[in-house]
Amino acid sequence: MKKIHVNTSTPYDVLIERGSLKRSGELISAVSKARKAVIITDDIVGRLYADTLCDSLEKSGISHSVFTFPNGEHSKNLSTLSDIFDFLCDENITRSDLLIALGGGVVGDITGFAAASYLRGIDFVQIPTTLLAQVDSSVGGKTAVDIKGGKNLVGAFKQPVLVICDSDTLDTLSPEILSDGMAECIKYGMIRDRKLFDLIASHDLGNIRDVIDDMVYTCIDIKRDVVENDEFDRGERMILNFGHTLGHAIEGWHNYTDYTHGMGVSAGMCMISRRLAPADVTAMLEKCVKAYSLPTDTEAPMNELLPFCTKDKKRDAANISYIICKEIGKADIVKVTTAQFAELMEG
Ligand code: GLY
C-alpha cells in the first residue's frame, strides 16, 4: 500500500492500493472510533460498490446506512444537502459517528460540506471512485454545493480523516470519465512536474491505464505539497486553478450538462496558453490534451463567457487571477483587472 500523509490543520493519510475498498472497514477503524456510519453515494456508484463497502464495515463492526442520490452535477445542490441532513437526523447520527463519501467529485464535495456543517462538524472519510476525485477533489478539504449563481459558491474547508483510493475502481470508468480526470492530471504536469507531463504525453487514452497507479500517486503528492503550503487558498493553492477560470465559465455556459469539468479545464488551459505561453509549450499541451480526447477550444463566444468569469471564486471585487505556465512544470499567478482580462481574452 502507498501512503501519502497530508499535514494540514487536521492531518490525515491518503491510502492508495488496489482492492482497498474491500478492506475499508479495517482501514477506517485504524483512524476512527466511530461505530456507526452513513455512506453517501450516487445511484451509479452505489450500484457498483456500496455492497463491498457495507460488507467491509460489517466485518469491522461498524453499523451503517446508505443515502443515495441521482448521479450528476445537477444533484450537487442545497436541496440534496437538505435531504442528507434530514436522513442524518432520522438515523440519529451524532458527532461520534462518521460520514463516508463513496463516489466521484459530486459525492465527495456534498458529503464533505454535510460533514462540515451537520452538528457543526462531524468526521468524514473520502472513498473516491473516479480519477478526477482521486487526484483532485478528495484531497485538500474543499467542500461545496452549487447555487443558481454558480458552481461551488457555498462551501467550507473540511479535511477528511482518511482518503482511500482503490485503483481497481478506475477499471470500470468509461473513456469519457477517464478523460475528465486526465485533464487534471495534465494540469499537475503543467504546473509542477515536467516528468509527469512527459509520462502522460507519451501515453494516450488507450494505454494510460498501464501507468495509472504511478500517475495517481504523483498527482496526489503534488496536491499534498500545494495544499500543505496554502491550505486555505490564499496564495500558492491558486496554481491548482490553471485553466479553471475559463473552464468553469465554459461549464456554466453549457449549463453544467453534457460538458465535463475536465473538458472545461482542458479548453481553458489551451485558451490561456495560446494567448500568453510560448508557442512550443502551447503546442505540446494541445497535442497532449488531444491524445485524451479533450478539447483545445470552445464554441462558446468570449463575450458570453466573460460574465461567468467575473462570478468565479478566484476573483476579488475588481480583479481576476489567472494561472499561466510559460514552461512545462512551472506556474505563475497573474492578477489583472476584470477589464484587462476581458481585453486579453477578446483581443
Ligand atoms: N481543486 C482545486 C483545489 O483543491 O484547490
In short:
The chain is an alpha/beta fold. Helices cover 45% and strands 20% of the residues.
Would you identify the regions where 5 or more consecutive residues have pLDDT less than 50?
none
Second-tier CATH architecture of the largest domain: Up-down Bundle
Bound molecules: glycine
How do the strands line up in the largest sheet?
1-2-9-6-5-3-4
Distance between the termini: 50 Å
What is Rg?
19 Å
- Mean pLDDT score: 95
CATH fold group of the largest domain: Dehydroquinate synthase-like, alpha domain
Number of strands: 11
Determine and state the CATH class of the largest domain: Mainly Alpha
Strand content: 15-25%
Shape: globular
Helix percentage = 40-55%
Characteristic key phrases:
347 residues, alpha/beta, Rossmann fold, Dehydroquinate synthase-like, alpha domain, two-stranded antiparallel sheet, 13 helices, 45% helix
Topology readout:
Elements: E1 2-6, E2 12-16, H1 24-29, E3 36-42, H2 43-59, E4 63-69, H3 78-90, E5 98-103, H4 105-117, E6 123-128, H5 131-137, E7 142-147, E8 150-157, E9 162-165, H6 175-192, H7 194-201, H8 212-229, H9 244-253, H10 261-276, H11 279-291, H12 302-309, E10 319-327, E11 330-337, H13 338-346
Parallel strand pairs: 2-9, 3-4, 3-5, 5-6, 6-9
Antiparallel strand pairs: 1-2, 7-8, 10-11
Glycine is lined by residues 136, 140, 142, 233, 237, 240.
Question: What can you see in these coordinates?
Answer:
With 347 residues, this protein is an alpha/beta fold. Helix 5 (131-137) runs parallel beside helix 8. The strands form 3 sheets. The protein has a 7-stranded mixed sheet with strand order 1-2-9-6-5-3-4, sandwiched between helices. The chain has a two-stranded antiparallel ribbon with strand order 7-8. It is globular and about 60 Å long. It has helices spanning 24-29, 43-59, 78-90, 105-117, 131-137, 175-192, 194-201, 212-229, 244-253, 261-276, 279-291, 302-309, 338-346; strands spanning 2-6, 12-16, 36-42, 63-69, 98-103, 123-128, 142-147, 150-157, 162-165, 319-327, 330-337. Strand 1 and strand 2 (12-16) form a beta hairpin. It folds into 2 domains: 2-172, Rossmann fold, CATH 3.40.50; 175-346, Dehydroquinate synthase-like - alpha domain (Dehydroquinate synthase-like, alpha domain, Up-down Bundle), CATH 1.20.1090. The model has no long low-confidence stretch (mean pLDDT 95).
